[in-house]
Design brief:
five-stranded parallel beta sheet, Rossmann fold, binds flavin mononucleotide
Length: 163
C-alpha cells in the first residue's frame, strides 16, 4: 500500500500537519508539496492539505485537486485561522470536495493555524473585518501538540478505511 501526503503551505502550519500525518501513516509513503508532485498515479490514498484562504482553497492546491484521477481515494486536511468547527473552514472543505468530484473523498480534518501578523494588522484597519481579525489572533498557538495528535488519529482512521 502506498500513500502520498501532498500539501500547500505558505507559513508552515499546514506543513506541520502534513509531517504529522506522514509520520503517522504506517505504509510506503511520500511527502511532497503540491506544486512539486509530478505524477499522481499509483497511490492507494492521497492526503491533500491546504490553508484556508478567503473561505476557500488557494490556487496551487486548487490546481492539484482538480487533477486528482477519477476514483482516487483522497483525504483532505487544512489549517485555518478561525475557530474549529466554524462555517468558513467548512465552506473550504465543501469547495475542495466539489473540485474533486471524480475522486473518492474518504474524509477531512481541519485545525487552527497561526495567522500571518501582516494580514491581521491589515484586517484590523477595516471595520468589517475587525471581528474576524480578533478571532484570528487567538490562533497564534496553533497547530499545537493536541492538533497534531488529532491529525495523526485522522490519518490512521483514513488508512484503516482502505485496508
Ligand atoms: C490570504 C489569506 C487568507 C486567509 N483567509 C482565511 C479564511 O478565510 N478563513 C480562515 O479561517 N483563515 C484564513 N487565513 C488564515 C490561514 O488559513 C491560516 O493562518 C493557515 O494556518 C495558514 O497555513 P500555512 O502556514 O500552511 O500557510 C488566511 C490567510 C491568508 C494569508
Amino acid at each position: 500500500m502506498k500513500a502520498l501526503v501532498a500539501y500547500y503551505s505558505e507559513t508552515g502550519n499546514t506543513e506541520k500537519l502534513a509531517r504529522a500525518i506522514y509520520d503517522a501513516v504506517n505504509v510506503e509513503k511520500e511527502l511532497i508539496p503540491v506544486q512539486d508532485v509530478k505524477n499522481m498515479a499509483g497511490y492507494d490514498i492521497i492526503f491533500c492539505g491546504f490553508p484556508v484562504h478567503a473561505h476557500s482553497v488557494p490556487g496551487k492546491a486548487l490546481n492539484f485537486i482538480k487533477k486528482l484521477p477519477a476514483g482516487q481515494k483522497v483525504a483532505f486536511f487544512s489549517t485555518h485561522g478561525s475557530l474549529r468547527g466554524g462555517q468558513l473552514p467548512k465552506q473550504a472543505f465543501e469547495h475542495a470536495i466539489g473540485l474533486a468530484a471524480k475522486a473518492k473523498v474518504l474524509g477531512h480534518f481541519g485545525c487552527r493555524g497561526k495567522v500571518n501578523q501582516t494580514l491581521i494588522d491589515a484586517l484590523m484597519k477595516k471595520p468589517e473585518h475587525a471581528a474576524w481579525a480578533e478571532e484570528a489572533m487567538t490562533a497564534h498557538v496553533h497547530p499545537d501538540q493536541h492538533d497534531l495528535e488529532d491529525s495523526k488519529k485522522f490519518a490512521q482512521e483514513m488508512i484503516a478505511k482502505i485496508r
